[in-house]
Specification:
The chain contains 4 helices and 6 strands. It has about 170 residues and is α+β, with helices and mostly antiparallel strands.
């Protein structure tokens, strides 16, 4: 019998996490910075879009997941609707991942919610059409990033300096 263990679903998950994994993460509320009375982040399924290394630290780019059918949190969405796709992803409800709401977090971040059974935050992995949609969106986001970087490289130095000051103040 073949062992189909996804090593991301083990205590060594940090070494095996990759694009397409669905994780349990305490994603902060959109208005948490502006509202001091805002409730604590809610643990929800999030989609790993990318994993990268910077300065000897691994970081995951994750997208917000929700089962709510509202007009809020729209844009660049990946829908997981079919029962087979939900089972593969470890989801119990129809879920949409909103890639317009994404965060880059270190893999040591305390927001990762580890399962008592596996020692991993990984719930499952996208399959089928949702995986294809995710890959297309990743390429689109990568292309947008390249265009933005090219634009920034052509702007006058005083504008770039002002932009970096603005980013630091935010």
């Amino acid at each position: 019998m073949l062992d189909r263990t996804d090593f991301a679903e083990t205590p060594e998950w940090r070494c095996h996490l990759g694009p397409g994994h669905v994780i349990a993460f305490a994603f902060p509320h959109a208005d948490a910075d502006e509202d001091e009375d805002c409730q604590a982040p809610k643990t929800r399924p999030c989609l790993v879009l990318d994993v990268e290394a910077r300065d000897d630290e691994r970081l995951a780019l994750i997208a917000y997941g929700t089962s709510a059918r509202t007009a809020a949190n729209k844009g660049l969405e990946i829908h997981v609707r079919r029962i087979e796709d939900r089972l593969a992803a470890g989801l119990t409800k129809r879920t949409r991942f909103v890639c317009a709401r994404r965060q880059l977090v270190p893999l040591r971040h305390p927001g990762f919610r580890l399962s008592a059974a596996t020692g991993s935050p990984v719930l499952g992995r996208l399959a089928g059409n949702p995986m294809s949609v995710m890959n297309a969106l990743r390429e689109r986001l990568r292309a947008q990033g390249e265009v933005a970087a090219a634009f920034r490289s052509r702007e006058p130095k005083h504008v770039a300096a002002a932009r970096s000051r603005d980013l630091i103040l935010q």
